[in-house]
């Protein structure tokens, strides 16, 4: 992979040069990981005209969750553990005899920005913007392979939970068990905080598990994902507990399922972000549930669980091939509960079979 990371850094260096900066400082953790291959927490990456330097508050440990730095990189460990790698990088950039340093202003605090200016007063600090985030949108096949394994781990963990006794257990207990199972199957850890929602809590997009216990007849909605070598996937499913679903539960589930299928089928190279959102959103709005819908129906995934692109009504842009995204519509009825169905897919052209579904757990409305 070192050659891959070198190519990524070369692309960024060319873009910076075209904008008038001979050096760039990358500080956002996911961006550092993307360009360096791996880095301990707090590390930053300095791209210079002659060499690239990874500045670390402590020596890289090689832990799977942090990855291994590209061997082609120079790795500098700060002499003082509580030093700021960003400030050290500014001083090092000044020694490279460059006039301008592009930095990720959206990641830096005002205090750190000022400290850099103090450390290298003759260095012009320019804004790198979201250049690296945009570069990360299209994934290579090795990245997609990591996402595929993350999805397999997630499916395994969820499948095992569905085979256990659920009635009487709390949302919090089930969430912790799912996260333990993710690690047991080889994940670095959960991709995000696992959500388990039962009864009137079900169907909410960001429900934090509570001490509410699972009861007969409940909707149970689960949202989880594994992180594997830093790459994160997402799945969301809804089930009924212990009995045949009621008519209103079947009706609501079928509606959300149709909306999710519409969004999945709209995924194709060249499809506008807003049109994919529209394909999933329109059935729910037509059924009278538009007011409570979340602002988007999907987003990109990779080294972060929510990254570009965003599939939203006002989003600008079009999908490319090899872009992994979620499609996750849902409806929540206050006091009653609701349904969420969420998959991670990779955009593929029709000639290659259309969108590749990574999360395979059944979307049938099961009574557990």
TrEMBL record:
Residues 195-204 have a biased composition (Polar residues). InterPro entries: Creatin/AminoP/Spt16_N (IPR029149), Creatinase/aminopeptidase-like (IPR036005), Creatinase_N (IPR000587), Pept_M24 (IPR000994), Peptidase_M24B (IPR050659). Residues 8-138 form the Creatinase N-terminal domain. Residues 192-212 are annotated as: Disordered. It holds the Pfam family Peptidase_M24. It comes from Streptomyces rhizosphaericola. Residues 146-348 form the Peptidase M24 domain. This is M24 family metallopeptidase. SUPFAM superfamilies: Creatinase/aminopeptidase, Creatinase/prolidase N-terminal domain.
């Amino acid at each position: 992979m070192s050659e891959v990371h070198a190519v990524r850094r070369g692309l960024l260096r060319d873009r910076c040069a075209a904008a008038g900066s001979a050096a760039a400082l990358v500080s956002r953790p996911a961006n550092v990981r993307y360009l360096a291959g791996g880095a301990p927490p707090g590390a930053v990456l300095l791209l210079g005209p002659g060499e690239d330097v990874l500045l670390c508050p402590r020596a890289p440990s090689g832990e799977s969750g942090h990855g291994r730095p590209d061997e082609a990189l120079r790795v500098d460990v700060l002499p003082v553990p509580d030093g700021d790698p960003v400030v050290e990088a500014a001083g090092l950039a000044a020694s490279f005899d460059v006039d301008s340093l592009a930095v990720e202003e959206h990641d830096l605090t005002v205090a750190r920005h000022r400290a850099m200016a103090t450390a290298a007063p003759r260095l012009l600090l320019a804004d790198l913007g979201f250049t690296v985030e945009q570069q990360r949108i299209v994934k290579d096949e090795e990245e997609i392979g990591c996402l595929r394994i993350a999805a397999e781990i997630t499916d395994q963990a969820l499948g095992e939970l569905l085979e256990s006794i659920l009635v009487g257990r709390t949302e919090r207990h089930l969430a912790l068990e799912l996260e333990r199972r993710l690690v047991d199957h080889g994940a670095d850890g959960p991709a995000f905080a696992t959500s388990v929602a039962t009864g009137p809590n079900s169907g909410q997009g960001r429900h934090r598990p509570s001490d509410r216990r699972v009861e007969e007849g409940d909707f149970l909605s689960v949202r989880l994902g594994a992180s594997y070598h830093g790459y994160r996937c997402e799945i969301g499913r809804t089930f009924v507990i212990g009995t045949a679903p009621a008519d209103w539960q079947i009706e609501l589930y079928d509606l959300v399922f149709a909306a999710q299928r519409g969004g999945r089928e709209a995924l194709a190279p060249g499809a506008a972000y807003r049109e994919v959102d529209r394909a999933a959103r329109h059935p729910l709005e037509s059924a009278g549930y538009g007011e409570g819908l979340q602002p988007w129906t999907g987003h990109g995934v990779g080294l972060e669980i929510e990254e570009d692109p965003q599939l939203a009504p006002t989003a600008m842009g079009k999908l490319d091939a090899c872009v992994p995204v979620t499609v996750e519509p849902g409806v929540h009825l206050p006091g009653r509960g609701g349904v969420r169905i969420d998959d991670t897919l990779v955009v593929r052209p029709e000639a290659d079979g259309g969108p590749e579904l990574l999360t395979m757990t059944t979307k049938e409305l099961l009574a557990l």
